[in-house]
Model the fold of this input.
Amino acid sequence: MKKKHGHEEPENHERWLLTYADLITLLLGLFVILYAMSKVDAAKYAEVAAALGGVFGGGGKVSVAQGSSGILQLPMPVVPKERQEVQKQVEEGLGGDLKSGRITLSTDERGLTLHVAEELSFSSGSAEPKQEMLRVLDTVAAIIRRLPHDIRVEGHTDDIPINTVVYRSNWHLSVARAVNIAYYFIESKDFSPEKVSVAGYGEFRPLVPNTSDMNRAKNRRVDIVILNNVESHSPMPLDSSLRKSGISRSNL
Done:
């Protein structure tokens, strides 16, 4: 007798739909999570950003970036309250010199900078501070000595070259001026050498173009920078950097 063959099930060619459906479900879940994460609580973000700014010396106008087709704008740094207080005290202590323009103040990402014009600080071609400059340094030292922040003294000149028996170039002169002011802070005002650094830029970092006598006078200056960060990444402390280079005040 012939055996009856059972009915064979047809092969299912649509099993891939199961995998595809699972993939779509997972993708939907992923986009739901990403959307939920993108909803930033602006108030909480502002509190966290302000707190971090106070700790790290940055901070500023806090804002949450909104999606757009343009370039992402980073939050602008804010001025810490401590630096505002220091600036206020400096302005009160040096009111007359600020009004005359012999000292100007500026702020940037590094900190608060006092620009002291050569007219007030040094005689032409000399690195010995004037008596008026020592008065300014006494006022500044009384304000910033108690702060934990490092300071940097930077010397600048105009673009007219010099070549004297003492100073071979504007660079030498700018370094000598910065060193003498730094030593005054250390020796006369008990500043820690580890918190003081110096830099000499010669004519290479002018405030304004050296196109007139008035502009050149603005560029001949010494900058005293109160750095934002307590442990700065500025040049080496004064004593150690000079020892390594073999430089002293006497041979500048």
About this structure: Strands lie at 103-107, 111-117, 151-156, 196-200, 221-227. The chain has two domains: 17-56, 81-251.
